Amino acid sequence: MNSLRVISFLAAILLVPILLHGAQTAPRERISINENWRFTKGDPTNSTESLLYDVRKRQPVRRLAEAESDGNSNANPAVTNEVSTPPPAVIKQWILPTGNDFIKDPSRRFSRPSGNPGDSAPYVQPGFDDSSWQQINLPHDWAIEGPFSHSGGGGMGRLPSAGIGWYRKKLTIPASDSGKSIFLDVDGAMSYSAVWLNGKLVGGWPFGYASWRLGLTPYVKPGGENELVIRLDNPPESSRWYPGGGIYRNVWLVKTAPVHVGHWGTQLTTAKTSPEMAMVELEVKVDNDSKQPMNVAVETQIFSLDANGRRSGRAVSAIAPVNLQINAGSNAVTKGQANISKPKLWGPPPQQRPNCYVAVTTVSEAGKVVDIYETPFGVRTLKFDPNAGIIVNGQHIDLKGVCDHHDLGALGAALNYRALQRQLEMLQEMGCNAIRTSHNPPAPELLELTDKMGFLVMDETFDVWVRQKTPFDFHLIFPDWHEQDLRAHLRRDRNHPSVIMWSVGNEVGEQYTGTNGAAVAKELCEIVHEEDPTRPTTTAMNSAQATHALPATVDVIGLNYQGAGVRKAPSQYPVFHEKFPEKVILGSETASAISSRGEYMFPVTTNNSAPTGPNSGKDQARRQVSAYELYSADWGSSADRVFASQEQHPYAGGEFVWTGWDYLGEPTPFDQSRSSYFGIIDLAGFKKDRFYEYQAHWLPDFPMAHILPHWTWPERVGQITPVHVFTSGDEGELFLNGKSLGRKKKGAYEYRLRWDDVVYQPGTLKVVAYKRGRKWATAEMKTAAEPAKLKLEPDRSEIRADGSDLSFVTARFTDKAGVTAPRADNLIHFEIEGPGEIVATDNGDPTSFVPFPSHDRKAFNGLCLVIVRGKPGSEGKIRLTAKAENLGIEKTSIKTTKDAK
Length: 901
Ligand code: GAL
Description:
The protein is mainly β.
């Protein structure tokens, strides 16, 4: 550092207390407006006005011609049509301008037509009496309470997610907010949102996975009550999994001075990093919403963050003030640099630590602080090496990843921080170090957590481009919205250290459309490179061949299933590696193994992977799949087969298993069920046997052994009952009632020890595992007697009294001696007293149609889950009681406090 820089660095550090003092007076506020909404399903019956986003898309047979005029022009078909049958209002032209900031070519941006759709809709009117509507807090999923439907396909989860929903909220905006810029930030609403404030249509956003902002300033009435109305229109047949319905993520009111850092207005990179020094490069976009040109000074301090995301100590570096002149109603960008000496790097555990920093940017006008904006980040280098895979901070990291959908099981799509954290904690316990956000932008909180916990993320935007997968999916709006949705996603997420690559699509139909499809891919990849020159693009391909046009357009080759080989086909890794020697290749989606926790079917295949079929791993009548963990969807493979393929192709960067957690919908191979069989962890959060197979392979230094199946088979005495063991050791000896059944060693590319000719007799199975010849771990499995007791096991016995924090309580049946009763299916009735409530129950059974809020549920293979939430603001002791059929009463308590961790 030269002396001038040292001086400015010190000056910046000394200035920090002054600036922090300024922080208290800076006008930026980000206020949660999740509470106290009114909600109703469906449009008013007495309304003459229907508010379709786009008549052509949703009413294909009616007045097709009229809609042709709506292209990208600003014509209002509702107005320009000669009308014999009045067409529904089409609000698309009022919605499209919301995305203008994300359209690069100014000539393609939209202007707002005159008129105010919704004028005659009663629910939109200020003063409408909504007191009979349901009172709810956000995040809200209107479908999760059910009921499950027996008719139709199971793909979307059999829950009533489709339909129209209205939300209304009164916002008190004080007179002192006059002159401020005011925004509505919606992290996610499913889907086709339209927003009115005080009776005026402000805008909206169709894509249900997008996060978006609306400028409310011209519509706000400071000094009184303002009425915010949001209408959603969630189409049927629009998804291949459960999308949820409603405003299912957080919603914020943001208030700033007219001059402020823009929406997602910073871009921070740390590409030039060594152990001695990290160069932080920061771009800041400042908006001037006022009617005068403005001169501002923009400066930034950098702090390190502790493990809880709190600032620790003094600034470690700074970017000196830069003066910026911004025209009225315009914006300007400043770029600066700062060095962090001996940076604490961000990287995935267990090899590395996820250290984080925050850049605090201050905008001042005439010496007065007008905005303070925080950009959390991490310092790390990323290299994609076609022969070695992913290199983080100079160290090779094999991606041990999973794909996950956004739902949180019995809680549905409604975001809950603790539920998401629990998902990630269990995955980390398994050795998982990477997440693919299949197949859409995740909740912002997911990336907050992956930053903190150190997961590497493949951040994915689309499941569909132009070619549809379901009749009303994203293909309908791809032409109008793909640029806005992609740029918005990139700008929202690009400062997260956990994000390592962008997937622009999953198994898109454009794999089959040659150069036309590749042209779409190329456009999307160019957008990514413009918005983020530091990370590669990929798309997940299940059928594209190396000679097709699509693979050539992406930076990283992501293969779905083709890495292990689909059906009898050999691995396609070598073919792609040869064709694209300059590109990293990885398993963007692997396995699609399926199982039901605790279900075992006989005979057991002698192969290391088999599709389910008649007499192959599934019980058609009960709609369950064997948990010997050897069975998969027809196009997939067991974990064993995938591990082998990954190890045989060491240049491949790793894998993302389909899926980490079970999810609602897509219940392959039994369409009549409600939820998937793919998860390594079931929908309730109970570990399937497969969990231990991944743990054994992904955490080779963690001593563990796990035996399957359970050993309670009164009807199998004398019958062959194979015993398999997952261990991070390489060898094991199995004992039944003290008698050795032999010592076995894993062969090349084998990931389990199997004793396939064990003759069942009740008692105790024990395995002693060895690693490199030394005793490494042991495990036991005992025959259980009749279920005699119920135990309640909260995952946390102290939770925050904030109306959001949760305790996940396992109800476990055991026999008299405390051995888990692995087949118990007794009915349990739950009751709760004190400052808490039961949000939902589940047992992980994909065939159960008992609605999630029910307080009565049967155990599934010994276990049941009850999810408890503390009431906001009321501290104390929550008492949970479980009454099990014929087995008496069991109690536990959970403390809620304002300051629980
Ligand atoms: C893949 C697809 C996933 C899921 C999975 C089930 O082809 O990308 O979304 O459908 O199959 O096996």
